[in-house]
Prior knowledge:
This protein has helices spanning 31-40, 99-110, 130-144, 158-164, 181-184, 202-209, 226-240, and strands at 14-16, 26-29, 48-52, 58-66, 71-80, 88-92, 114-119, 151-152, 156-157, 169-173, 179-180, 190-194, 214-218. The protein is an alpha/beta fold. Strands 6, 7, 8, 9, 10, 11, 12 and 13 form an eight-stranded parallel sheet that branches. Strands 1-3-4-5-2 form a five-stranded mixed sheet.
Amino acid sequence: MARTPAWPPASLPRLYVEGPLGPDMPIALDRAQANYLGNVLRLATGDDVLLFDGRHGEWHARITAASKKAMQVHAVTQVREQETVPDVTLAFAPVKKGKVDFLIEKAVELGVRHLQPVITERTIVRSLNLDRMRAHIIEAAEQCGRTALATIAQPIKLERWLSTRGDGALYFADENGGANALERYAPPPATILTGPEGGFTDKERGAIRATPGATAISLGPRILRAETAALAAIATYMAGAGDWSD
């Protein structure tokens, strides 16, 4: 069926697949996806789904074979081209499990391209289950309509990261105050850096301020939790210099 304003319907299940996606391309879904579509949603051969692979946009696909543990679909028509994602990195100090899951999920929904955990002196959580983080990234992308997957790197100590991060603007949320974020943000590429519970130490704050391209920003008059600060910084950036006005 040709694409119209009402097709494909927005209510179709939407899944990430390894791909690659292309016209009449057969895709074997993994066991969890087959279980979700077949046993939870009660879909069967002939039913429609939406697929994306992070590289080739979004595709309308049709289930061509289904059993209790396996399912095959065929891509039919590309319904959305691959999105252009602003080159925005969130560098964040990991917070406790549950909160960090929430942070990852919402950062993806807000549109970041890359996630970089940084270990600071006051960071409590010093290791992350990156497989679980990637699963949250995929789930968030499926829910919010992204066609590009955000990437996540291994945690790195703040001092080392500052010395190796490369060029581009660096905005760091400084609880001691800084410039009005919306007045200082410039178009991508950009990195937003937020700290742990308890904030940056004075030594860390000095090292960040001394980094080329770094600008301290203020996120308002209230004290924000670490995960709230990260999401507030992303939201203000996307509104002021990102892709929300496209």
